[in-house]
From TrEMBL:
It comes from Robertmurraya siralis. The modification Pyruvic acid (Ser) is found at residue 25. This is Aspartate 1-decarboxylase. The active site is at residues 25, 58. Is synthesized initially as an inactive proenzyme, which is activated by self-cleavage at a specific serine bond to produce a beta-subunit with a hydroxyl group at its C-terminus and an alpha-subunit with a pyruvoyl group at its N-terminus. CDD domains: Asp_decarbox. It catalyses: L-aspartate + H(+) = beta-alanine + CO2. Its cofactor is pyruvate.
């Protein structure tokens, strides 16, 4: 049996742009992607902390060091520039490996800089 487990998480990133006229997806700075083990075209779930919207799309890598978090296409109607979002990727993990699985969690600041890297969800996250 396989379980769907959190694999990577970008916690409390700020939306830098919402581009309704783009085909679709989310553009994320390549440095941030590498830190959490996410890749181009990977499916992700996005949670908007400002309005509760939850949606799925796929990743387009953004310019390295740009700190870009841009929601593209129709999903741009679910966010505004400056909104705080959580971006989550998942992986199918075999039952016998779930206890060894360690996700990569990037805690972000208001400038979309990684301030801390975790390998498990804390019991309580202080904001």
């Amino acid at each position: 049996m396989f379980r769907t487990m959190m694999n990577g998480k970008i916690h409390r990133a700020r939306v830098t742009e919402a581009n309704l006229n783009y085909v679709g997806s989310i553009t994320i700075d390549e440095e941030i992607l590498e830190a959490v083990g996410m890749v181009a075209n990977e499916k992700v779930q996005i949670v908007n902390n400002h309005n509760g919207a939850r949606f799925e799309t796929y990743i387009i890598p953004g310019k390295r060091g740009s700190r870009v978090i841009c929601i593209n296409g129709a999903a741009a109607r679910l966010v505004q520039e400056g909104d705080v979002v959580i971006i989550i990727s998942y992986a199918l993990v075999a039952e016998e490996n779930i206890h060894a699985h360690q996700p990569k969690v990037a805690i972000m600041n208001e400038k979309n800089e990684i301030v801390e890297m975790l390998h498990a969800e804390p019991e309580k996250t202080i904001i």
